[in-house]
Structure formats: structure tokens, C-alpha cells
């Protein structure tokens, strides 16, 4: 498959493929996610200038390879399926006990909150453009004020921002790990999470 055919078929850019590799950690996981061979994924990561690494690294993604337990395994086996917003329904869907689901989600939310707390002031980030839910891109330097919210079920981050000079409001939603990758923030395992305060001017 040619480079153009692969990217077109998967509606991808090389940058998006590289971000997915950062998120999923391994070529095997990326290949499974896109339904491609590991050889193909490795080839296009190389074309994109990505240096692949051996072995797992610390990660906070759902179902990370370093995680054990019923729900973590189910998430790895079903990478494209979304979880329902209910412990009871997750238990029914996955076959994991409600206690296992609660324990997994509690640990994941705690570490995600810690990661969110480490996000620097977005207004000082250089050349950071984020896409709004309306479909246009805005530079974070144009924020006069903003607030961050973590979706406790999807682990996406919502950013409610007000733009200079007229204080127009926009809404941005993206996976928290994608935002952290854009800001080069690495997870720190074992850190007790702190409360995340909304940031404003």
C-alpha cells in the first residue's frame, strides 16, 4: 500500500499517526487500532520521522499495557469501544465486577486529575493552536481567560475560553493525553493528585 493510499484510507496525517503512537505506546497497539499490519505502521512512523521505542513506558491511557485487572484487559481488547457512563452498565458490558470497575476508574481519575493539575498556563504556550467544537482553530495566546474541566467518563478535557479583544466564548474538547502530548507533559506515576483550580485572568 502506498503512503498516499494508507493515509487516505485511514483519513490520517503522519502527525496524527505519530500522536496515536504516543498515546497507545506500541506499534502493536496502533496497528490493532487502525486494522493495519505492524510492518505498515512502523514504515509510516519512520516516514514521519518518529523514533519507535522498545518496551512500555508509563502511560495513563485507558487500558494501558502496564495495567492489570479485568477492566484494563477488556479495554485493550476493545480499543475503539466507548464505555457507558454508569458503573453498573460498564460491569454488564465488560463482565467485570462493579468493585473492579469502581477501583479502576478511581485510580484513573485520580491520576488524570494530577496530570490536569500539571498543565501550564495555556496563554503562555508558544504556537499552540486548538480546534473548537465549532470546527475552527484558535491560538491559546488569544485567550483572555479560560477554565479546564475533566470528563470523568471519557477522560477528555473541556476548555471554556474567552478570546481577546471582545471576550467571545469558545469551547474546546479533546483527549487530555493529546493535550499533554502537545505540551510535552509526561505522566508522573505515584503522585498524589491535587485539586485543579480553573484558571482566569
- Number of structural units classed as domains: 3
Structural class: alpha+beta
- Average per-residue pLDDT, rounded, comes to 79
- Span between termini: 50 Å
What is the count of β-strands?
5
The shape is: globular
Q: In which order are the strands of the major sheet placed?
A: 3-4-5
Helices and strands, in N-to-C order? HHHHHHHEEEEEH
Question: Which bin fits the share of residues in helices?
Answer: 25-40%
The unreliable regions are 189-201
Largest sheet: 3 strands, antiparallel
Please count the helical segments.
8
Strand content is: 5-15%
CA-atom Rg in angstroms: 18 Å
Can you describe this structure?
By secondary structure, the chain is an alpha+beta fold. The protein has 3 domains: 3-47; 70-117; 122-182. 40% of the residues lie in helices and 15% in strands. The chain is built from 8 helices and 5 strands; from the N terminus they run H-H-H-H-H-H-H-E-E-E-E-E-H. The chain has a 3-stranded antiparallel β-sheet with strand order 3-4-5. Helix 2 (14-24) packs across helix 4 (38-47), helix 3 crosses helix 4 and helix 6 packs across helix 7. 21% of the residues are buried. The model is unreliable at 189-201 (pLDDT under 50).
List key phrases describing it.
alpha+beta; 201 residues; two-stranded antiparallel sheet; disordered C terminus
A few lines on this structure:
The protein is of the alpha+beta class.
Which SSEs are present, and which pair or pack?
Elements: H1 3-10, H2 14-24, H3 27-34, H4 38-47, H5 70-77, H6 87-94, H7 98-117, E1 129-131, E2 137-139, E3 143-150, E4 156-163, E5 168-175, H8 176-182
Antiparallel strand pairs: 1-2, 3-4, 4-5
